[in-house]
From TrEMBL:
Record's protein name: HMG box domain-containing protein
Species name: Rhizophagus irregularis
């Protein structure tokens, strides 16, 4: 393996779930899906499954104040 290949960054699909997020839920969903892609190294996750997981995670944090949500 060449050094250049070793240090190259993975090519993740940066296409968001929501193109122009208009609220905190949509921003959170985009960030959550991207984090799942990075953690699992799965460049094309099942969108329905990941969106369902994002909704479940959002239900856990949606009652926090906006500054806490921004810090997540």
């Amino acid at each position: 393996m060449s050094r250049q290949m070793f240090f190259s960054t993975p090519k993740f699909n940066k296409k968001p779930i929501y193109r122009s997020p208009i609220n905190k839920y949509q921003e959170f969903s985009n960030a959550y899906v991207y984090s799942i892609m990075v953690k699992t190294a799965n460049y094309t996750p099942n969108r329905a499954d990941v969106c369902c997981e994002a909704a479940q995670e959002w239900n856990k944090i949606k009652n926090k104040n906006s500054t806490e949500i921004e810090d997540i």
